[in-house]
Amino acid sequence: MPSAHGDAPGRKPEAGGAQVKSAVRTVELLEFFAGKPGMHTLAAVQEAVGYPKSSLYMLLRTLVELGWIETDATGTRYGIGVRALLVGTSYIDGDEVVAAARPTLDRLSDDTTETIHLARLDGTNVVYLATRQSQHYLRPFTRVGRRLPAHSTSLGKALLATYGDDQVRAMLPESLAPLTEHTITDREKLIAELHQIREQGYAVDREENTLGLSCFGVAIPYRTPARDAISCSVPVARLTPAHEQTIKDALFDARDRLALATRHL
User: pTM value?
Assistant: First the structure.
């Protein structure tokens, strides 16, 4: 399940005490496994989180018994457990914005015939909360629960544009990690693009997150700075000027509908 802080594992508790320390370590372990799908050896987990081997082993065994962590047939490799999925699902099922957005996401999918996403800003990342698959023949995939860097996505850039320049500088490092050869990696260049996004009302990711894919995003203005955004992804091979305009018009209409649907949240 995504972290509520957007930080990497390794945060230190602000207060002393064995109970607080254990709670922090438990959360950090779950965040590690959520961010690193698959099975991992005890040595690999220890290298990532830096806990003493004996206490790490005992914590892992406890989480296995409770269902939060699973092991393979040998009992020597560990991965995220089913209880984490149940908690993540309950977060989405109980979220008022996700519930309010469902009819609008369905209509946006029909209007564009492309893949639609609803995501939330989480620190310097965006977490995907809902998806509508493309109506064209594509390999099925879903991003619900996934976390991606805000600076490389139209969703994230639309949300960052609702913050002031100094706030963005405080949030992001000067050098940004590239996901493709097209990703903006200079913070000041990104800030310059955020100025343009504020003027035009939408953000664009042109193969900055995934090669061969462009994405258009708008923030939902039910709070300031914005917390959530919607986007439409389309393969560049199918992105004609007319189709791009259709997508933009549909996104603006969806934004206005969502602003009305979420005005009391």
Answer: 0.76
